[in-house]
């Protein structure tokens, strides 16, 4: 210590990670919490390999798949889907409603198969399919806290924005890139955000 080399060792990423370790030292009091955050930060800073220059990118999903997902989403909402609870990184305020979750296992598998080659092209390496969670419907006064994903299961990931209500306000994804910049990305229906999810801190914090 100090860490001799970050991955990637760009000036911006090094500065960002050094600030993160300083924040950890000065603000986190619980030993248990400090340990968990330290491990996640070490993984992001030096242990997880990077595959792209910036750590995230934006594209469009195939239109046929977008239409199928929009139809599945609206059909699922009409079917009174269950609320999603006990997700550590989702925060809701006061009596705000929890997100809804629409389970479509067969559709999830189709999405994984259909989009695999796009993820491989973006990352530049062959990939092993891991998981497609399903359709999550956020409602008013929910936040997705800033976090990195677990590197055992999440390396190259994407968020596919299916649809939103006509009267909703833009709800940007915030993501830190490998040059040390913080970016806000507003997605439209069919937009797909690729990202290196165990390296780049991301969320929807407001």
UniProtKB/TrEMBL annotation:
This is Alpha-ketoglutarate-dependent dioxygenase AlkB-like domain-containing protein. It comes from Corethron hystrix.
């Amino acid at each position: 210590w100090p860490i001799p080399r970050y991955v990637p060792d760009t000036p911006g990423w090094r500065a960002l990670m050094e600030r993160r370790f300083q924040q950890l030292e000065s603000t986190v009091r619980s030993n248990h919490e400090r340990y968990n955050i330290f491990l996640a930060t070490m993984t992001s800073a030096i242990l997880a390999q990077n595959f792209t220059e910036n750590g995230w990118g934006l594209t469009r999903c195939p239109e046929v798949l977008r239409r199928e997902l929009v139809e599945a989403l609206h059909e699922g909402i009409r079917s009174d889907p269950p609320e999603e609870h006990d997700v550590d990184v989702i925060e809701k305020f006061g009596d705000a409603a929890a997100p809804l979750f629409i389970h479509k296992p067969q559709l999830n598998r189709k999405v994984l198969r259909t989009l695999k080659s796009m993820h491989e092209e973006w990352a530049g390496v062959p990939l092993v399919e891991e998981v497609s969670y399903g359709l999550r419907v956020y409602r008013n006064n929910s936040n997705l806290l800033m976090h990195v994903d677990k590197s055992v299961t999440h390396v190259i990931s994407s968020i596919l924005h299916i649809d939103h209500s006509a009267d909703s306000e833009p709800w940007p994804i915030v993501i830190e890139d490998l040059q040390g910049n913080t970016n806000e990305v507003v997605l439209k229906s069919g937009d797909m955000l690729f990202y290196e999810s165990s390296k780049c801190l991301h969320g929807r914090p407001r």
